[in-house]
Q: What sequence folds into this?
């Protein structure tokens, strides 16, 4: 994916953390998704919708941009301004309580969000899988802990993010938490390559959260954390 295509949309206003366009680009380069305008993708925890825009442009699918903290009205206005109002539907809902029809998504994508709501065993099977079509694909990129520090998040990250440290899980632990099902063919988790570039873009902004992250980058974020990539392939119809 050529990230330069989206330069005009990547700004301090649309970024909510390390550059989500870079995380998405790595996932798409590894696992390209091509769809038609009849296919549907759920962008879960879409924030300001930057990822939804890129997903829509790169795949050609209809995108359901779902988020909890950003209102559907705000994202809808942005999508209209960006000229993708017809292709992207903004929704404000909690990932724990989604109201879609069953088996309607060809893919689920979630960037820098899944750790907020999906860290318990069985979440994927109970809250996500019912909405996915057979043969569906899932691409997730989340901040996490390097495998070497599995289960030590509180010890290493509390000075930086306090009680939120428990949300940082290693690739190994995400693999375990996602678990299996008779509808899942394959789950892969790995430490992503885009870490430095995604963080550099975010730390260069004047966002107040970026200022605090800057103070902890060399001592906490860089030595102990990573981005965890997750790829899930669902089986064809049983
Ligand atoms: C750091 S932002 C990332 C947003 C966007 N995906 C990106 O990368 O720019 C995390 C997002 O997760 C969303 N989120 C947190 N908890 C959620 C939940 N329970 N259901 C849906 N979205 C949630 C928030 O609303 C927030 O916009």
A:
């Amino acid at each position: 994916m050529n990230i330069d295509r989206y330069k005009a949309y990547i700004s301090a206003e649309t970024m909510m953390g390390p550059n989500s366009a870079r995380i998405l680009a790595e996932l798409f380069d590894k696992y390209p998704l091509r769809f038609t305008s009849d296919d549907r993708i759920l962008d879960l925890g879409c924030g300001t919708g930057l990822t939804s825009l890129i997903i829509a442009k790169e795949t050609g699918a209809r995108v359901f941009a779902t988020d909890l903290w950003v209102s559907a009205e705000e994202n809808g206005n942005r999508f209209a301004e960006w000229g993708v109002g017809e292709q992207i539907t903004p929704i404000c809902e909690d990932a724990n309580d989604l109201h879609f029809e069953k088996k309607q998504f060809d893919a689920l994508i979630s960037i820098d969000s899944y750790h907020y709501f999906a860290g318990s065993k069985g979440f994927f099977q109970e809250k996500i899988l019912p909405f996915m079509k057979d043969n569906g694909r899932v691409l997730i990129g989340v901040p996490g802990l390097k495998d070497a520090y599995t289960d030590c998040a509180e010890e290493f990250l509390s000075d930086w993010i306090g009680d939120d440290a428990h949300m940082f899980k290693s690739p190994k632990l995400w693999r375990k938490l996602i678990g299996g099902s008779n509808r899942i063919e394959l789950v892969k988790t790995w430490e992503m390559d885009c870490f430095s570039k995604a963080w550099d873009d975010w730390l260069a902004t004047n966002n107040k959260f970026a200022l605090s992250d800057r103070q902890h980058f060399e001592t906490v974020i860089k030595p102990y954390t990573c981005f965890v990539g997750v790829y899930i392939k669902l089986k064809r119809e049983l």
Notes: The radius of gyration is 17 Å. The pocket of S-adenosylmethionine is lined by residues 16-17, 20, 45-47, 50-51, 67-70, 94-96, 111-113, 116-117 (CB under 6 Å).
